[in-house]
Predict the structure.
Amino acid sequence: MSEPSAQALQLQRRPTISDSFRTWKLKLGLEISIFLSHHHQIGFIAHSHRLRIRGVRRRMVNSETPRKRVAFVLIDGLGDVSIPRFGYKTPLEAAKVPNLDAIASAGVNGLMDPVEVGLGCGSDTAHLSLLGYDPRVYYRGRGAFESMGAGLAMAPGDIAFKSNFATFDEKTGVVTSRRADRHFEEEGPILCAALDKMKLPSYPEYEVRVRYATEHRCGVVVKGPKLSGNISGTDPLKDNRLLLEAKPLDNTEEAKHTANVVNELSKEISKILVAHPLNKKRATEGKNIANIVLLRGCGIRIEVPAFEKNHGLRPCMVAPTKIIAGLGLSLGIDILEALGATGDYRTLLTSKATAIANALSAPVRTCPNIFVPGEDEHKPGVSDGYDFGFLHIKAIDDAGHDKATVFKVKGLEAVDKAIGQLARLLWEAESAGPFQFFLCVTGDHSTPVEYGDHSFEPVPFTLCRLKDYVGAVGGESVVLQTSLDTFPLPTVEAGDDLSDYVAAEEEISQAGRAFSGDSVWRLDEIAAARGSLGRFPGSEMMGIIKKFIQLEL
């Protein structure tokens, strides 16, 4: 890293959280430690008495108060375990991520269990927990999230499914491949159009809506009377298993009736797909045919207090992954348009970063348009901007599921580059407008490449003021030199080896030191354990963020 500029040195001379720690220790001769209270507050304790650090106070609200806004970056599947080929480092430890390290060096850190200790959770339940909604209370299946994110409007009483185009042996009843094709971007919308508004012969009073999501996925919504979300699905969850029948999960007449409706839906979908010319073409080309849609995660639209009402922050989100977008919509979060952003390896991270930066910087910059389920056209976003910008990045989770060890390292480096772009755009806005920005980075769960699935390991969490990040990264001149050019996610060639790379990173890690905040100077699973936030459940995350941005140092 280059020598600190004059701007960086000026920032270094400003009081920091660490300075406050040292001041109190010298003044009182007492051991001060930061703690999390049961009310999700950050405080300081000396023996048994709570103390308020000199120079840290709640900012009084007045006309000159900067607008405090948070850029929240969630790296899906961020956490991992030690990899022997990387010298028993995790992919995050092995990666060269100077911007993520600067955020950790500039702020407060900890390890977070997205829901609870020892629970390997899905992205949907984890996101609910992190955003302050207990999944044990509010979770009603992921089908509604997937379908709303795909663009299907849902009303109370509708049911929805998270669905896969799959390959089914009609003679044996066996699902030979749960994913007909991971690259289904051209054909998926065609088949969805053929299924949309299909009729059920025995149940003509029901309306069926189908919309393409991503890869092999689609959203399916059923509208009509006396439907229940309390049924099982048809997805066997593994290849080469029998297609399942939907079953009621309680003894109500609604659940029994809904299971019958869904079983007929499954059969009628298969009839339409088998006869579709696109599948005949795929068969002649030797490709898997998509002759069934697996229906799972039956759910209803959840009814919850809006995010803004709960937290006092106007939220927006960039989330091309449909299930995350649908979850956001369910919480009253606006979904921003970001051209070229996808929920897979083809995504343009710069587009995502720019959309969040513009939304947080409005009205200095023009706010992006927002997505509305059930409508073909996007609508203008909030003209004076948002307070909480949620940037979701999916590709790292995909790397874990695909057991793509080297790609996860290189993918994290690409994410780091995009975060540098986000920081530059926000710093330009903070320098020119009435803003004070904060950067927060974490994950929703671990997806270790050795496992190929979600696990219960905690994830690192880091939070800082943007101006402290600027100092930690080397000063304003370094930030403003960050290129804003778009870039693709990296490719990995057969035989790529990162052994030299990991050794060089080891030398860097030995020379690091914290810029401000706590004693952590890197973002990884091991370093975060030394952070001042300790280990905490995801349900406390929003409380930590809200308390942190209220502090004035």
In short: Confidence is low (pLDDT under 50) at residues 1-63. The chain has two domains: 6-139+306-552, 143-299.
